[in-house]
Amino acid sequence: MPETLYQTPLHTFIEYVKILVAALIIAVLLRSFIIQPFIIPSESMINTLQVGDRLFVNKFSYGIHLPFVVKEIFSTGEPELGDIVVFPFPQNKSEDYIKRVVGIPGDKLEMRDKKLFRNGLPLEEPYAIHTGRDIDPYRDNFLPKTVPPGKVFVLGDNRDNSRDSRYWGFVDKDEIHGRAFIIYWSSINLTDIKWDRIGRLLR
Q1: How far apart are CA 152 and CA 146, in angstroms?
Q2: Is the N end or the C end of the chain the one with fewer CB atoms within 10 Å?
């Protein structure tokens, strides 16, 4: 007579608990050290990212973070111009934001009538859009500022509809969760799946 894998209901229960605990540990490790899912909640990164896009964020891009710890414990790289990054909102660390890096340490940035200048030269930004023609003296113009060491300057691609470094300043490099690299799903509801966006690499 063949042996029974689980001799009693208690043995069966214990084995299922072990499986669930192992799955939970793996999920926590993946999210903490390898990839993090992120959902686009607003229009601040249109046209690159749209409401309902689901992204994977590479958590190895810039540093290693412990679970529930904001600051990195080990650096693995530096943000580059054009990277799309996820980070805790500087004014509310419990909320994550996603923006594009437009300035790295040492860069001198200035905005004149919606046009961004980096180190005195206009920055080519094919991803940036402007949905309004009016000039907001605070949003669309700022005096030259230099990005400090260990910081980055970030903007939303939808420049006229984004709360970003123009309003609350620089982002600490060692607080960045990682770089968004692929859209794995895109829908607002089950009847509006954007199939053409799924699998799109981000840059």
Answers
A1: 10
A2: N
- Mark the ranges of the chain whose per-residue pLDDT is less than 50: 1-2
Task: Reply yes or no on whether 115 is catalytic.
Answer: no
pTM here is 0.83
Phi, psi of 4 (to 5 degrees): -90, 130
Model confidence pLDDT, tens digit, residues 42-80: 999 999 999 999 999 998 889 877 666 667 777 889 999
Per-residue burial over 43-67, b = 16 or more CB atoms within 10 Å of its CB, e = otherwise: bbbbebbeebbbbbbbbebbbebee
What is the pLDDT, as a whole number, of residue 15? 72
Return the SS3 of 196.
helix
44 is catalytic: yes
**Which member of 59, 61, 99, 151 is catalytic?**
99
Assign domain 36-197 one CATH number from 2.60.120.1440, 3.20.20.100, 3.40.50.2000, 2.10.109.10.
2.10.109.10
Which of these is catalytic: 18, 32, 42, 44? 44
Nearest of 183, 182, 148 to residue 165 by alpha carbon: 148
- The neighbouring-strand residues paired with 40 are none
Residues 6+ apart with CB under 8 A from 145: 108, 109, 110, 153
